[in-house]
Amino acid sequence: EPEVTQTPSHQVTQMGQEVILRCVPISNHLYFYWYRQILGQKVEFLVSFYNNEISEKSEIFDDQFSVERPDGSNFTLKIRSTKLEDSAMYFCASSETGATNEKLFFGSGTQLSVL
Amino acid sequence: GEDVEQSLFLSVREGDSSVINCTYTDSSSTYLYWYKQEPGAGLQLLTYIFSNMDMKQDQRLTVLLNKKDKHLSLRIADTQTGDSAIYFCAEKEDGGFKTIFGAGTRLFVKA
Asked: What is the distance in angstroms between the Cα of B93 and the nearest Cα belonging to chain A?
């Protein structure tokens, strides 16, 4: 089965530093997503992206966050100035058409630790 | 706002049935999902149910939906050690982009 790949699997950074989390969605998919899960808490929606635009974002996705599809294959999440509370597992996902009954394909996540 | 709640842990013996429960708040949810996460892997869609259905069966998996009580359950028959994982309940509104997840239920299967 095709896979969404995320790099790195673990990222440690100092508070205030910028981080970029990378994802390679499945090649024929058109919709891309970022979710995160703080340890012991729910998986939270951050943002969805289609046609080089944000289609929906949550309250968590403030000005410190940005997403980009810099080329035909990568989808990145940038956190401009990390805070301790940004420590979480970040999951990238993609889907082919964005339809409600369509399967989301998730990557295995990047564990971000902000010190 | 939308919310999905599920218990955090469940322990069963191999061969028994497992029942993982979930409650949700959004009555406009069109689809309800169960995802599975194995160690070191991403979430994988196990099954979903449309909101106008009461039950869906797929091999060892049975999903029951009680719309009145906004209660969703996943039953795994003849649970195997390979079923040990975290199971996430989730909901999505028709036409929406975001999926709302619970915190996940960690299923332990004892041999």
From this structure: 7
Contact state of B30 with A107 under an 8 Å Cβ cutoff: no
Q: How far apart are CA B60 and CA B56, in angstroms?
A: 11
Measured from the Cβ of residue A10, the count of other Cβ atoms closer than 10 Å reads: 10
Residue B1: per-residue pLDDT: 66
CB contact at 8 A, A104 and A94 = yes
Do residue B101 and residue A43 have CB atoms under 8 angstroms apart?
A: yes
User: If phi over 0 gives left and psi between -120 and 50 gives alpha, with beta otherwise, what is residue A28?
Assistant: alpha
What's the token pair of residue B51? 């909101």
Instruction: Measure B26 CA to nearest chain A CA, in Å.
Output: 15
The predicted-structure confidence for A39-65, as pLDDT tens digits, reads as follows: 888 899 999 999 999 999 999 999 999
What amino acid occupies position B98? Answer: K
